[in-house]
Write a structure and sequence with these properties.
alpha+beta
Length: about 180
């Protein structure tokens, strides 16, 4: 015969309510410590990407002016995305040239240049009078609370400020606010 099942300890199955509350409280405390650090790390990574994008714009604009623009600059990101004849490689990566304003790594990347009427046509299809003597580009954060704004121009220096520089940065020279990154 099989003896009936007996309980050795009454109520000793599973966790007590106090154990579950303790675990939930511990997870809450750890989350409160970790989440702000995670957000700061994400913003730092986005800022590094935006600075890299500004450097890439500077490099591609210089290459464009020297090889294709007859000394003049592209006026839009999409122009830098058009390869010159005989090449399949554009001046700037397609991830930054799909549109004239593009969101990339939490930043809105944009580029503009005032057309110069006497500029010659370019090798990748920009009509005469459409290229610029200078340019300006900016990376503005899309997330609220991120106060790192970046801009650059034909001088090749990247500037940082706590407000958008795109409206105020000239195509050549220093902006009225912000400081250069070294």
């Amino acid at each position: 015969m099989v003896p009936p099942r007996t309980r050795l300890h009454a109520g000793a199955h599973g966790f007590a309510l106090i154990d579950l509350l303790f675990c939930c409280g511990l997870i809450g405390i750890l989350s409160a410590i970790a989440v702000p650090r995670l957000l700061l790390a994400s913003q730092a990574a986005g800022s590094a990407s935006a600075i890299g994008s500004m450097r890439a714009v500077n490099s591609s604009e210089l290459t464009y002016a020297l090889t294709c623009g007859n000394g003049f600059y592209a006026t839009k990101l999409t122009t830098l995305g058009t390869p010159p004849p005989g090449s399949t490689e554009p001046f700037l990566t397609p991830s930054l040239t799909a549109m004239d304003q593009i969101e990339h790594s939490g930043y809105l990347i944009q580029l503009t240049a005032e057309s110069f009427g006497q500029a010659p046509g370019t090798c990748n299809g920009l009509a005469p009078g459409e290229a610029g003597r200078g340019y300006k580009a900016a990376a503005d954060p899309t997330a609220p609370g991120n106060l790192r704004f970046f801009a650059t121009n034909a001088g090749g220096i990247i500037y940082e400020d706590v407000t958008s520089l795109f409206a105020t940065v000239p195509e050549v020279g220093d902006p009225p606010s912000g400081h250069p990154l070294r």
